[in-house]
Design a protein that fits this description.
Chain A is of the alpha+beta class and 137 residues long. Chain A has one domain: Heat Shock Protein 90, CATH 3.30.565.10. In chain A, 33% of the residues lie in helices and 30% in strands. Chain A contains three helices and five strands; from the N terminus they run E-H-H-E-E-H-E-E. In chain A, a hairpin with a 2-residue loop joins strand 2 and strand 3. The chains are: A alpha+beta (137), B alpha/beta (112).
Chain lengths: 137, 112
């Protein structure tokens, strides 16, 4: 199993580090451009949710991302110290089959994460939210 | 990400070059607001060079479409890359947006 860790500050400007890490991994682990993009989109979604909705103070926060692969199974574990938030328990408000008037501005991201990844798991551990997404590539 | 504006007979063409994500979606949002404020409610978004769009970007597309529709204009997309087309499909956007394979077909949709 190969792993790679990334620690980013809880700020939107840090997202480019996620993109850069995925680019490097794509080469090292022979991940296709399509799967790399999907992984980037999923991580952007998870990390953005933490940054925009998770923190209740103005302190500096760190988000840990651990990428790993085992044969052709790719995993990313995102750990944050925001208050407890289980994305899997949120109602799906994405309304992807609705016409324009019914479409809401929110709700797209989590729907996308669940659709594109093979597995999404959440656990609250040691005062942190831990989300694991897995995809065979 | 770069935005280029061109005026055609029947509409305004906006070309997006690069990524649209949480860090920069505001740029497109501001541009669309600006176009509408200037009375340009017939907009063609050329996505041939759009190579990444996250939910933040999709949200701008959605609010753009709603605002243009409210202004009785027309908002059309063209030349989506394959991976981007798939994101649109997963999000259900291919059902609510008018999407053309190329600029020519898109421009034709504005005339008449």
């Amino acid at each position: 199993m190969d792993t790679r860790e990334l620690h980013i500050a809880g700020k939107v400007s840090e997202l480019e580090k996620v993109t850069a890490a995925i680019e490097e991994l794509s080469e090292a682990w022979a991940i296709s451009p399509k799967v790399a993009m999907q992984l980037n989109l999923v991580l952007e979604e998870l990390v953005t949710n933490i940054m925009l909705h998770g923190y209740v103070d103005d302190l500096e926060h760190v988000i840990d991302i651990e990428f790993s692969r085992n044969d052709r199974v790719l995993s990313a574990v995102v750990t944050d110290d925001a208050p407890a938030f289980n994305l899997l328990e949120q109602p799906d408000d994405s309304r992807v089959d609705q016409p324009l008037e019914e479409r809401k501005i929110g709700g797209l991201g989590i729907h996308f994460v669940k659709t594109v990844m093979d597995r999404v798991e959440y656990v609250r551990r040691d005062g942190k939210n831990v989300v694991t997404v897995t995809k065979t590539y | 990400m770069e935005l280029t504006e061109q005026t055609a007979d029947s509409c305004t063409i906006l070309s997006i070059d690069g990524r649209l994500d949480t860090a920069n979606y505001g740029v497109l949002e501001a541009k669309l607001t600006d176009l509408l404020a200037r009375g340009h409610a017939r907009i063609l978004l050329d996505c041939s060079k759009l190579d990444y769009v996250s939910s933040s970007g999709l949200r701008v597309f959605l609010t753009g479409l709603k605002k243009v529709t409210a202004a009785q204009g027309k908002f059309v997309l063209c030349s989506l890359q394959e991976n981007i087309q798939e994101i649109f499909e997963i999000s259900g956007f291919s059902g609510i947006f008018e999407i053309h394979p190329g600029r020519e077909q898109a421009l034709t949709s504005f005339s008449g």
